[in-house]
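Consider the following input, taken from an annotated entry for Peptidase (Olleya marilimosa).
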Amino acid sequence: MKKIKFMALASLCFILGLQSCQKNEDTIIDEEVAVKEVSAELLAKLAKAQINTDNAKIVDFMLPDGSTKEMIEVEGDLFMSEEDILNLNEETSATDRNYRTNNLVSQGKTITIIGYTGGSNALSTKERTALQWAVDNYNALSGVSISFQLSFGTNYQSKDMVVYHNPSQSGAGGSAGFPSNGNPYKFVQIYGLDNYDTNVVEHVITHEIGHSVGFRHTDWFNRASCGQNQNEGAGSIGAIDLGGNNPETSVMLACFSSGEDGEFGIDDINALQIMY
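Applying the prediction step yields:
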């Protein structure tokens, strides 16, 4: 079965990112292309925050209006600005195998989320349907204090979150980020999903929204779902244990398959009830 590796633009409670690339049965295809070198100062700061610096590089991150912002990519799926890295705290608790970030969205918050419909970054009809399904799944949860108010259009500046298509990104998957200051991460990208059915697109969007409200990858400590053995690091982001006995059904695994149904696993639901 084909598997895809998420890259979620993770906002280390500030601005981090994760993204995705594609994996065939026995071969992981790394979709990223190295561009610029990261300074020794920033690499040292990342290492002290217990973030893996292998293959760290500088890349351009596309915003909904088509403009780009320079970010530093580490671990193949985390993105930070230079300022974010310099402001990192130096943590020592990277051995706990946990599931959420230190920062969360404010309890009881109604999150305004918009599906972008303008220009080349517009969501397709299938992607809009998948976004609606993903939001419906979040709003259907009982015992969870946050909720989502969905609209479609181009006025994303006033919204808490915007979901949009990035046509320039290689691979298949999405990117998002982690909460800060009681707010979800704003920018959720998806890309390369034209050949996947709506359920898979729903899964990707659900996953990225999950990062935006504080989920870490279920297998952040080894990325085993991608056929890897690589620790993403806890560091300043945090990786707080939410328990669970059925990780194989989680929407928050680092890699997803082409047969995903887009629905939460029981551990995802329990975790959201604990978080919110």
